[in-house]
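Internal ticket #5521
Category: modeling
Description: The requester needs a full-assembly model to guide mutagenesis choices. All entity lines are attached below as received. Residue total reported by intake: 401.
Assigned to: D.W.
Attached entities:
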Amino acid sequence: MISLTSPVRTRAHGWPAGAKLGGLLLATVALAASSSLVVLGAGAGLVLLLYALPGRVFLAHGLRRLAVLLPFVLVILGWHLLAAEPLVGLAICLRMVAAVALANLVTMTTRLSDMMQVLRRLGAPLARFGFNMRALEISIALLIRMIPVLSETGGHLRQSWRARSARRPGWRIIMPLTLATLDDADHVAEALKARGGIGGAGPEISDTDERKSQWKRP
Amino acid sequence: MEKTVTHVALFAAIIAVLGLLPNFQLGFGVPISAQSLGVMLAGTVLGAKRGALAVMLLLLVVALGLPLLAGGRGGLGVFVGPTAGFLWGWIAAAFVTGWVMERWSSAPVLPVAAVASVLGGIVVLYAFGIAGMAMVLQKSLPEAALLVTAFIPGDLIKAGIAAALTASLARARPGSLMSRRAS
């Protein structure tokens, strides 16, 4: 899988994730509110500087992730060239690229575990209103765990299709894949229930070592 | 409770895995990913609430930094980019698709799933997508709509496939459509 995190460790990795996200939010709002070419240009230049500071590897990695915006940049620049207002097009592109680049920057320099911490902190007040944070955490873990399982199932299905047909499997394997997944979901639900369920019981379950060992996969 | 959690999580995983399938191309070179097909299926199979939850879970994990969108995209950047409207729209798309399925629960599966997928996965999804694109690219709504019309034929095909898949699921495992169960 292509990693979205940075190939090199930067100083920003040590900064608190909550502060980075807050800063990102403010900067995004500021970019959205501004229409001055000077401000947007300065903003984009600053973002580029942030990308360049950790070195060439980081810069190349970051710029590659922005390549998906290129078609949009070309369309907008072309559009506004035809409308004879190239500066308006330039402002739109600067704002868009700077906003996406800045958001990517936070993702590149923040570990998944740090992001989870922020999520947990944000979720804590919601828990008081009956929001089941534990269900959410189990869902996230399940989702991440099941992706390699499902893609392996998909691979098997594709192989067995190829063994019997010269045509490409395409969308046809989605049906057996979905069936297998729904069955898996039933089994996992039973397994969860057998291990005490998700219920409202909070983290005290996962804190006891005895219970923890039961959560391990057989 | 456990069943809801596992179905939501596993369907989110299906949508992610569909993003790994190689894109297929329409005759005129427009790439279509199978991922929005997964969003339609989430609605037709899981129903409104669970379908929307599956999409929200996937988007949350994408925002946390995992590259689970088609082409290995992900992270926070995709939520402010020009196609962000389509991502936000996925939630509403799955919900509306599931809602239509639940509403017409007495009618045959195939036609209802087709109508539901078109309403949710195309009409609602494009409304969000076009609005988002108009905002980011500073275009009027009709201008933004112009930029995405090329993708509508592909999505019509996907709605057809989603309906066919839902109907064969209902045949193969009659109890599997949560959108059709009174729960």
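Resolution: model delivered.
Comment from assignee: Strands of chain B lie at 24-25, 31-32.
Ticket closed.
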